[in-house]
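sry for the spam today, last one i promise. struct tokens for design, 114 residues
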């Protein structure tokens, strides 16, 4: 850990300075602020008296809950991910099948399209 302490300090200190400057009201000419502070501002609520049509409410309420069959195709990285995703899909009422092509690359995928 001591070996990496200097590197960690070199990376963390500028990050802290950028975050503090983003939230501050200071303005240095020629130095643009990062937009980090906008991620932490509270969202404004819609006032209760705002009129929202029933049609808009009905459109946003539509949710497809039908059981889905999913095919996952990939290389050896899929071996660990596929098992987790199959479990997750099963817990949500879906069926997932996955096909693994070991040692494949995007080039071999493109060359072997039937």
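last one done:
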């Amino acid at each position: 850990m001591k070996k990496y302490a200097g590197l960690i300090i070199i990376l963390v200190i500028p990050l802290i300075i950028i975050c503090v400057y983003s939230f501050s009201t200071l303005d240095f000419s020629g130095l643009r602020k990062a937009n980090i502070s906008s991620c932490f501002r509270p969202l404004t609520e819609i006032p209760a008296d705002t009129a929202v049509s029933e049609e808009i409410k009905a459109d946003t309420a539509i949710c497809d809950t039908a059981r889905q069959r999913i095919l996952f195709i990939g290389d050896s990285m899929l071996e660990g991910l596929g098992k987790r995703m199959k479990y997750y899909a099963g817990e949500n009422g879906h069926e997932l099948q996955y096909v693994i092509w070991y040692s494949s690359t995007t080039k071999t995928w493109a060359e072997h399209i039937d």
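Strands lie at 69-74, 95-100. ok im logging off now
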